[in-house]
Amino acid sequence: MTAIAEARTSQGATPAESAGSTTAKVFNYPLNAWYVAAWDHEVTRKPMARRIANQPLALFRTEDGRAAALADACWHRLAPLSMGKTVGADGIQCPYHGIVYNSAGRCVSMPAQETINPSATVPSYPVIERYRYVWVWLGDPTQADPDLVPDMSQMSSDEWAGDGETIHAACNYQLILDNLMDLTHEEFVHASSIGQEELSDSEFETTHDGNRVTVSRWMFDIDAPPFWLKNMRDKFPGFEGKVDRWQIIHFEAPGTIRIDVGVAQAGTGAHDGDRSHGVNGYVMNTITPETDRTSHYFWAFMRNYRLDSQLITTQLRDGVHGVFGEDETMLKAQQDAIDANPDHQFYSLNIDAGGMWVRRILEKMLDAEGRPAAITQK
Amino acid sequence: MAVDNTEVWQDALVVEAHDVAAGIRRIVLEPEHPVGAEPGSHLDLTVQIDGEPATRSYSIVESRDAGRRLAISVFRAPASRGGSIHMHALQAGDRLRITQPMQNFPLRVGAPRYVLLAGGIGITAILHMARVLKSIKADYRLVYAGRSRNAMAYLSELEAEHGDRLSVHVDDDGTALAVPDLIATVDAATELYMCGPIRLMDAVRRGWTDAGLEAPNLRYETFGNSGWYDPEEFTVRIPRLDIEATVGKGRSMLEALEDAGVEMMFDCRKGECGLCQVKILELDGAVDHRDVFYSKRQQDAGSQMCVCVSRVARPATADGSETGDVPACAHRPAVVTLDVG
Asked: B323 falls in which pLDDT band (50, 70, 90)?
């Protein structure tokens, strides 16, 4: 064996010694947190199946419209309740032997006997409906404080309009957080829509506070990329000229990232707080781990101008759909490469500051749950 | 929330054993593979009864340090089947075989109101729940009933911890619990969790149904170890298989039949699932139904029984009231004649 081969072999054999936990490649997910399980309109009287943080759930609404989440396996022989139907005001019936549970997961009816086995329950999970989403808490229910739902207030505010979609992303959720915490990639991945070389030329500032991280980047006196020129002209018909552009990324643990984005006519004071000569959007993202290597990526684009234009809502949604499709392809390719190179480590760049603070916060949450940050590779 | 109740048997070290009330011993265990225990969970452990291993279930009173220390409390019943005698002999440094914490009695977080009801040693299943409900500032009441104050474990701690939310009912003090009065204070949004002797739990279940309250809001757990009569030795016969066996005070009818070579079907072993039911052909004595599988109507019909927990006894009085102190040896053993599936 050559010296190089020997060194490579030994390095590969002991990655744990050189790789700090901040560079975990497949990231674990906190359970004591609210995750978006579904858009509000997805949850209906007809039960649906969705896996959240590796836990299969049956989601449905009671007769009075309350959303409920139960483990998607009947107590009896584990048939999926999501294949069953809602019955009565509050019940869901197993499709196999007809056992009925209420929305708290307690059995209310059992076939062929006069009593109900007191042990017959399926786990139920705390649910909150807020900001057009159904949120679920999979960890310790005594800690499920409604005040801990991440702020997504632009979704349901009268001052903002817009819509979004869900991407089923073939990667660990943390890769998506990395993607959104550093927008330098726009220059390369989204060259035709929002990318421009000033992105990697400009300074950015990273701050953190508790379970939040903020990354701010301003670009002054630049040409508006195609996406933003169109938006400026929607608000200011015939707009020409240079703009000041901002991207202020707000992360809130464990998986919500709102990006305050916009452009304003150059030199009109947007950086100092006067955005009246510009257009402002909020890219709303909340990422829910599905499995170790797949994620539900809920996004929306909200704007605070021309609120009544369904045309603009649809155009923006479709435009972002195209942009995020480029990310989806990259994220899957990245996950595949990670899995194909188990002996290789992550290294970090200056541009990763935001993403690295996110990892630090997630590690602390996991540590408090007594769980490791890294999921062992396949 | 654990759904997996597959037993993981392991060694545990007894690190503490002392009396916490008359006849009640608190035993603190250090399991080999610690797992935090939720309120309502229990563990199974192996006891020796007359040199034979048997399995008993005990609620986990406290789980400390992510399950590295689990406290249980054992009541030494005057009419013990034998398990509690073994448990009371344990000393710090002893080892025994236990399972991980298992959950059949989960506390649901989020009910508008709670009543927690403990009868006697049943406090062991309730204490942890009360502590959790207090910590999340839930609207709860803790009702603790017993025969005498000195036989009620953890009473002073509970009084200090729960203050006005605790009401104590003591037979010897003339403040016995009146179940109808308790049920009258319960509304449709209240969840009631109870653990105690079968007489108390049956009275609450009947009162609950009569009051038109929703069955799923009444939560309880039974290990089938409490009956209408004290356990005594009796005889079981299966003419079709030409079998006659004696069921000792410390054995279940299921165990005795298996010992006699009868291939029995069963699953839960605590009177819930109904798989072990048998047909009663003839009875010389009274059936002590300790299961929760049959309805009152089915139990009264007297044609079937669950052999995992239910027994046969010969009550001292004709009306079937409690045997009291009459020793089992004072009369002929009861006899039940069965057929099995």
From this structure: very low
A142 in contact with B at a CB cutoff of 8 Å?
yes
Q: How many domains does chain A have?
A: 2
CA distance, residue A145 to nearest chain B CA (Å) = 10
So what CATH class is B10-103? Answer: mainly beta
Question: If one looks up domain B234-339 in CATH, what number appears?
Answer: 3.10.20.30
Where residue A4 falls among pLDDT bands split at 50, 70, 90? low
Mutate to test the interface with A, among B108, B114, B269 (most CBs of A within 10 A): B108
* Torsion region of B288: left, alpha or beta (phi above 0 gives left; psi -120 to 50 gives alpha): beta
Contacts A108 to B, Cβ<8 Å: 214-216
List residues in chain B touching A: CB distance below 8 A. Answer: 1, 3, 66, 104-106, 108-111, 132, 135-136, 214-217, 219-222, 268, 272-274, 292-295, 297-298
Taking only Cα atoms into account, the Rg of chain B, rounded to an integer number of angstroms, comes to: 20
Domain carrying residue A45: 34-138
Which CATH fold topology does B113-220 show?
Rossmann fold (3.40.50)
- Tell me: do A121 and A156 sit in the same domain: no
> What is the domain partition of chain B in residue ranges?
10-103, 113-220, 234-339
- Please answer whether residues A303 and A234 qualify as being in contact, where contact means their C-beta atoms are separated by less than 8 angstroms: no
Could you tell me if residue A359 is inside a domain? yes
Average per-residue pLDDT in chain B?
A: 91
Do residues A257 and A146 lie in contact, with contact meaning Cβ atoms separated by under 8 Å?
no
The mean pLDDT value of chain A amounts to: 92
